[in-house]
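Budget justification aside, the reviewers requested a transparent look at the raw inputs and outputs of the sequence design task funded under Objective 1. We therefore reproduce one unedited record. The lines immediately below are the structure tokens for a 223-residue chain.
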């Protein structure tokens, strides 16, 4: 018995890949092909076509097949999801990190919207670097007199706080990057109920278990 590596397909012409994709569609008697179907029936792998053409949907388009479009995702939803993924990993997410286990939005969605994964990250960083978002006029009228900011910590501010804290718990130093069991949350240093504002100077990154314990102590103290 001997071992063999899977063959590389770097030198396969584009048209050969596309012909194979069309042939799989013909076998299925369908106008489109899912990645799982291609992996089962195709000569190559869906990842080979994704790397060559930029995404699976772009591969379908090049082959003249139908792309199944999902509901329009807003930019706010795209960036909010990236905040969640970044916090879950404790580092900048890579292309292959956007799996169904880590992300509610596929990497192809980002690549289609921004023309590539790197460009999507660049757009996200520009958005994050715009700084804190002041409360809207509607929010301001609903705020208690002792507050100038809403209690809710928006996604941009959450990201800025976690980035400042290097995606580590300020109390324990733990991070999802080294311990996948760690879940990070952003918490008020001076409680909002006691007049603390939702500004970056009054926010800190905590591990979820630490944050829960802190909340329980605050409740006992308030009682």
């Amino acid at each position: 018995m001997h071992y063999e590596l899977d063959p590389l397909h770097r030198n396969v012409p584009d048209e050969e890949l596309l012909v194979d994709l069309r042939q799989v569609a013909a076998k299925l008697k369908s106008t489109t092909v899912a990645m799982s179907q291609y992996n089962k029936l195709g000569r190559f792998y869906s990842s080979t076509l994704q790397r060559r053409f930029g995404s699976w949907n772009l591969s379908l388009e090049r082959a003249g097949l139908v792309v199944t479009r999902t509901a329009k995702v807003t930019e706010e939803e795209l960036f909010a999801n990236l905040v969640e993924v970044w916090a879950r990993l404790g580092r900048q997410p890579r292309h292959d990190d956007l799996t169904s286990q880590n992300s509610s939005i596929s990497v192809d969605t980002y690549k289609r919207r921004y023309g590539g994964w790197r460009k999507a990250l660049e757009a996200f960083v520009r958005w994050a670097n715009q700084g804190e978002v002041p409360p809207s006029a509607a929010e301001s009228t609903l705020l208690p007199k002792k507050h100038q900011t809403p209690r809710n910590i928006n996604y941009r501010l959450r990201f800025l706080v976690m980035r400042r804290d290097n995606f580590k718990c300020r109390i324990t130093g733990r991070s999802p990057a080294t311990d996948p069991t760690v879940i990070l949350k952003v918490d008020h240093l001076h409680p909002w109920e006691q007049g603390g504002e939702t500004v970056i100077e009054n926010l800190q990154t905590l591990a979820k278990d630490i944050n829960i314990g802190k909340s329980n102590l605050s409740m006992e103290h308030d009682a």
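The chain has three domains: 14-62, 75-128, 137-222. Strands lie at 184-188, 203-207. Computational costs for records of this kind are itemized in the attached budget.
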